[in-house]
Amino acid sequence: MKRLLCMLIIFSTIAMVACSPKIDNSVDNNEQDNTGENRWMSTIEENIFIEGMEELITLNIYSHKNFLTYVPEDLLIHTESKGMDDYYCFFANYGGIKNENVYLKLSFYSESIERPDPFIEGNFKKVDDFNKIYSWSLEEYKGLNGLYGILIEREGTYITMLISSPGEFEEGFIPRVNKIIDNFYFTDTNQYLAK
Hints:
Blueprint: H1 2-19, E1 43-50, E2 53-64, E3 67-72, E4 75-82, E5 85-92, E6 99-108, E7 125-126, E8 139-142, E9 147-154, E10 157-164, H2 167-182, E11 185-186, E12 191-192
Antiparallel strand pairs: 1-2, 2-3, 3-11, 4-5, 5-6, 6-10, 7-8, 8-9, 9-10, 11-12
């Protein structure tokens, strides 16, 4: 009986792994496989941990200019361009209520900007390399009231990320931000941000 139960568990596990959806992230979202279908799915489900509890969330693909990523469905996206610079803001929208104090703001600077210093204002303090959260960042800054800044250099241009997650929102928002970052893919160079 135990042997039969073990075999059942093994076969079930193999079947689940074999049938689980796989994403080939080595191509941009417009490239098609030999069947003519896009390799990037429009929606995926992944787990996050909030206060030690696992929660399954739905992520929708977001593609704009030279990048794509997956964004949790409970975030709203606002885009803006100023001159040659582009800005993307992902706001918390829990329960259908937009919270403009809880967001991830990405700023893509044009090649004409030598090196932005967006974290000089606002009482930001530079995080030493040993305490940085993201190993791929150029510099990181910690601010007051749940603000965290990240400076990235890529292909001779700069990108900044500003995370705003005041106390009571930090546990739920940061895992969502990390899903955006983990899936962030540059389609012009076929590279992930975080890998």
